[in-house]
User: Which sequence fits this backbone?
């Protein structure tokens, strides 16, 4: 018989009042002798692993806190909202903001996750605008380096390019 996560393995014993105790195995593998009445009334559902699993599920919003893109998102938000962040003067102090939708990681990942590849960085197409789906893309660090507001563009036979782009193109 099964009660919650417990499966009754065998009869264990009766106490001095005649109450039955049963050897049970939890779904996680732990075994314990349990008072029969506690099983029947649902007073015990597991060895304790149910509470731990439920707490883990309730405290997990997206399950991606170890993913590199999660830390890109955290850094993006922090530099735009925390005056104590080392890059605040280049972002939040200039009025660069993160759109309301991207205040939660799952929405950011839904918008940007398909294009993510390891080694790419999050870049704003227009450096004077904030972070939102329409203004962001994943690019190489070389592309991002050319898209800085301090980059100087010069006229070349290939159009306006940064000095480093023109140098690479011309050999």
Assistant:
């Amino acid at each position: 018989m099964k009660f919650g996560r417990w499966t009754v393995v065998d009869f264990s014993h009766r106490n001095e009042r005649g109450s039955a105790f049963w050897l049970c195995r939890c779904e996680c593998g732990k075994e314990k002798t349990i008072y029969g009445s506690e099983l029947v009334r649902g007073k015990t559902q597991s060895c304790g692993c149910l509470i731990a699993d439920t707490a883990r599920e309730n405290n997990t919003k997206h399950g991606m806190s170890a993913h590199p893109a999660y830390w890109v998102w955290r850094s993006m938000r922090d530099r735009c909202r925390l005056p104590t962040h080392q890059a605040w003067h280049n972002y939040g102090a200039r009025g660069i903001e993160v759109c309301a939708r991207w205040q939660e990681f799952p929405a950011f990942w839904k918008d940007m996750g398909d294009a993510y590849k390891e080694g790419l960085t999050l870049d704003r197409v227009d450096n004077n605008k904030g972070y939102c789906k329409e203004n962001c893309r994943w690019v190489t660090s070389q592309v991002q380096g050319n898209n800085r507001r301090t980059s100087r563009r010069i006229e070349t036979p290939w159009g306006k390019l940064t000095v480093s782009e023109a140098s690479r193109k011309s050999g």
In short: The longest strand covers residues 6-14. The chain is about 30% helix and 25% strand. The mean pLDDT is 89.
